[in-house]
């Protein structure tokens, strides 16, 4: 070959699963519908480290215990502690915690008012996954917002 030089062999970088997970934003999904939560997990797991809890009380306990997530996505209508209740509690104990909502079922007047005031933080079921992804990105904690999230 004319002008060939010996170059070091290029090898693909090997990143561990943990390293890849550390680069993905953390998402706490609060959803009481187990099947729907599993579906969302499968749709979002490529871009986020997704943890699922089925009760808002569990999410609140974790945040009060010092855990922070790049975003919490919460069904607005949950048994016992609702998404609205979680919002109120987090505003007191962790106002920096990013929180967005999935509006499901037939919303009560209070939920309709809340969703109208927080339109950028709510997506209504049924929804396109792109709408959910866009809402999550728009509501990520500021330090995470500009990270490279695949698929967006």
What distance separates the N and C termini? 43 Å
| Quaternary organisation | single chain
Shape: globular
Kindly estimate the percentage of residues that lie in beta strands according to DSSP.
Answer: 15-25%
Class of the domain at 48-145 in CATH? Answer: Alpha Beta
- Which residue ranges are poorly predicted, with pLDDT under 50 across at least 5 consecutive positions? 1-15, 146-152
Listing every helix as H and every strand as E from the N terminus to the C terminus, the arrangement reads HEHEHEHEHEHH
* Largest β-sheet summary: 5 strands, parallel
Determine the structural class based on helices, strands and strand pairing: alpha/beta
Query: Mean pLDDT, as a whole number?
Result: 84
Can you name the CATH architecture of the domain at 48-145? Answer: 3-Layer(aba) Sandwich
Spatial strand order of the main sheet: 2-1-3-4-5
Helix content: 40-55%
Number of beta-strand segments: 5
What is the fold named in CATH at topology level of the domain at 48-145?
Rossmann fold
In CATH terms, the superfamily of the domain at 48-145 is: Response regulator
The number of distinct helices, counting runs of at least 4 residues, comes to 7
Q: Roughly how many Å is the radius of gyration? A: 19 Å
């Amino acid at each position: 070959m004319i002008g060939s030089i010996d170059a070091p062999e290029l090898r693909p970088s090997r990143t561990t699963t943990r390293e890849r997970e550390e680069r993905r934003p953390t998402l706490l999904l609060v959803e009481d519908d187990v099947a729907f939560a599993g579906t969302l997990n499968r749709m979002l797991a490529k871009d986020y480290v997704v943890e699922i809890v089925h009760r808002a009380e569990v999410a609140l306990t974790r945040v009060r215990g010092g855990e922070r997530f790049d975003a919490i996505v919460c069904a607005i209508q949950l048994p016992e502690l609702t998404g609205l209740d979680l919002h109120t509690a987090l505003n007191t104990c962790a106002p920096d915690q990013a929180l967005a909502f999935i509006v499901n079922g037939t919303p009560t007047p209070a939920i309709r008012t809340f969703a109208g005031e927080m339109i950028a933080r709510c997506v209504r079921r049924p929804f396109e996954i792109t709408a959910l992804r866009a809402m999550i990105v728009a509501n990520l904690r500021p330090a995470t917002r500009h990270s490279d999230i695949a698929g967006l």
